[in-house]
Design brief:
The chain is α+β, with helices and mostly antiparallel strands and 140 residues long. The strands form two sheets. Strands 1-2-3 form a three-stranded mixed β-sheet. The chain is built from six helices and five strands. It has a single domain, classed as CBS-domain (Roll). The longest helix has 16 residues. Strand 2 and strand 3 form a beta hairpin. It is elongated and about 50 Å long. It comes from Candidatus Woesebacteria bacterium RBG_16_42_24. This is CBS domain-containing protein. InterPro entries: CBS_dom, CBS_dom_sf, Diverse_CBS-Domain. Keywords: CBS domain.
Length: 140
């Protein structure tokens, strides 16, 4: 289950933040994404990929661009008892690398494909279970 990879406190930035604030927060926490929130409500997610595609390269100043202009608004989520195979399948289908794990509307943590790969490398049982679950997903 995906909850085995948490809990990791979600890192957030306020919806009034500039892109540079989000980049500083990501660098400070050594992570590749932040959730954009307003009054504890998730409005979107901002990732390294968003910066690469929508940032300085296309003429936007990180210091002057509001995060809400460049964040990804469509946030795909999973619940804590989701199996890793389902999470990986959705990540592949939607071409995303970071996914919030929510319970009752509250974000518990954000899972990344990097964290899943690390778990595979460090835990053979985790790998075996996920591969078995992939097989079950594709038999139905």
């Amino acid at each position: 289950m995906i909850e085995e990879l948490g809990p990791i406190t979600p890192v957030v930035v306020d919806s009034r933040a500039m892109v540079l604030d989000a980049l500083d927060t990501m660098a400070d926490h050594d992570i590749g994404s932040v959730l954009v929130v307003e009054d504890k409500q998730v409005l979107g997610i901002y990732t390294e990929r968003d910066y690469a595609r929508k940032g300085e390269r296309v003429g936007r100043s990180a210091a002057r661009t509001p995060i809400t202009e460049v964040m990804t608004r469509e946030v795909h989520t999973k619940i804590p008892d989701s199996i890793v195979a389902e999470v990986l399948q959705l990540m592949a289908e939607k071409d995303i690398r970071h996914m919030p794990v929510v319970d009752g509307g509250e974000v518990l943590f954000v899972i990344s494909n990097k964290a899943i790969l690390r778990a595979f490398a460090e835990n053979k049982a985790f790998w075996d279970t996920t591969m078995r679950d992939f097989g079950a997903l594709h038999r139905t």
